[in-house]
Amino acid sequence: xxxxxxxxxxRQMLAGFGVELDDEKxxxxxxxxAQGGSVSxxxxxxxEVLGLPKLDPSLFDSLAEMSADAETGEELADxxxxxxxxxxxxxxxxxxxxxxxxxxxxxxxCPRCGWLWCSECGQKLAREQPSCDNPECFLNGPDTDELDExxxx
Length: 153
Ligand SMILES: [Zn+2]
Ligand SMILES: [Zn+2]
Hints:
By secondary structure, this protein is mainly alpha-helical.
């Protein structure tokens, strides 16, 4: 049976969305896959099982495409949040959370061409100076300070 492989793939993909699968949900998801249909139809059924909001059907098509590319849920999450490389268009980009000397989730890295950029505003960054200094960028906006502001005395 290839069934368990398919469940593993689904489990990994959903882990990228922060969704834990238990055995009962896996049973129901297995039944959905057994029924067949297009990948995006199956994903819509999956979202129903998991109690997630209904999304635009075109979004399921994109998710299905991305999940076919991404090898793990983590990679899927990265490619969703970071987006394609602004320089070469490569889609399997990642964040720099574990990149020595950078360690910043908001910095995108293209493994193909080595481009570094701010994932919020798209500004090109350099390894020597990997923090965004674009005054227009969300990361540098006054709103982000307000979030940290202590309650007034
Ligand atoms: Zn690139
Ligand atoms: Zn920025």
